[in-house]
Amino acid sequence: MEPSAKLDRKNRTRIRQIVGPDHCSDSSEDLFLYAYDALNRRYLPDMVVHPGSAREISELLKLANEARFPVVPRGAGTGLTGGSLAVDGGLVVTTRRLDRILDIDRDNMTVWCEAGVVNGDLQAEVEKEGLFFPPDPASMKFSTIGGNAAENAGGPRAVKYGVTRDYVMALEVVLPTGEILHTGSSAIKSVTGYDLTRLMVGSEGTLGFITRLLLRLVPKPETVRAMLTVFPETRMASNTVARIMSSRIVPSTLEFMDRSAIDCVKNYLDIELPDDAAALLLIEVDGRATSVTEQMATIQSICREVGANLVRAADSEEERESLWTARRSLSPAIMKIRPLKINEDVAVPRMKIPELIEGVEEIARCRDLIIVNFGHAGDGNVHVNLLVDPEDRDEVARAHSAVEDLFRLVVSLGGSLSGEHGIGIAKAPYLAIELDETMISVMRRIKGALDPNNILNPHKTFDFDPSVTSREFR
Which 8-state DSSP code applies to residue 203? Predict the structure, then answer.
């Protein structure tokens, strides 16, 4: 499919004048590079620009409102729901040049940074100062802080430390109409007016373009210990999670794999696993060394009391890293089964995980699909992976039916369609399964108030238009 050509020659010239000719492109090669994200669907933008300041982004958005072309914010393109795709053409605006860590304040434990800073790079820099930025999405080595905030990214450490929104204190945001907005405060407590910082975080680039962030930090933990435990029944793993929490221990991570996921990674593990392994927990505890040692002993006792048939603690950093090999090896192991996976990041109350897994297994049987489940047991966020051969049209159709089955199951358990990946275009058709008409109407009104011309990241979340999103090119 050819680009939608929403930008005429005059507007392309004005865009080059705003950002400089070296920081924009409309060559077919460059457009293709920005036509997809981790959802692996493709939509060609008409032009890609790399502004160097909020002022330049402001000028671009003012021009977009004047000429009525779409603007799509983009970080590293690691999103899994299509939030950074130019589904209706227009202008992709990246944060590639907004990549500076501006100020690390050790005394107040905060950091100012630009939106294009990579999460892992930020973590490494603040840890040199004895500080810690907890949000750790799987894409942390590549994904940007601005994108993490736009999607309200989580990660394994969310069970103890929370998600990105819990660390964003203030923002510099360019509104869809071009005004530059400063939200929040450097003070820990601030209740002056509406909380526009939280409104922007998780808005998936539909309400504003985040350019700078003030992030709260915490002291770097003195030590981290890890253990792996295996159970013959899924419900035992959930009961173990509940027992750990009720014992007043909050692990820094509590990762879960079901039988199908364990089977996928057995070849990657240098551990003899029981033949009846139905569920695996990878548990980490951090803090002061003496406290961590006591907590690890308590957790091991709980695991054995509940019925674990394998409990193994890491006695060194090398052993801890080897335990994480199982979790990190899941994606490549899964891809050996089928070339395409549909990854849904649903969330349910912790104690509903066994019912979720049982329901998913029933969906897999009814739809004749392979489904692999793993995720964050500590906060009920389970990644349900439907494995599909994209050349098998019947299997693809069954998988899409299974996705709707899954979402209806999740909502019936009091859960949510997305725990950390957002809605984008991938989950937009199913939004009404969870949200009622009033909720969606209020969201539309907020969007309309801030973006009256529907310029910024259109056709995402509740603004889904299948006639537009179906125009994918191959």
Answer: S
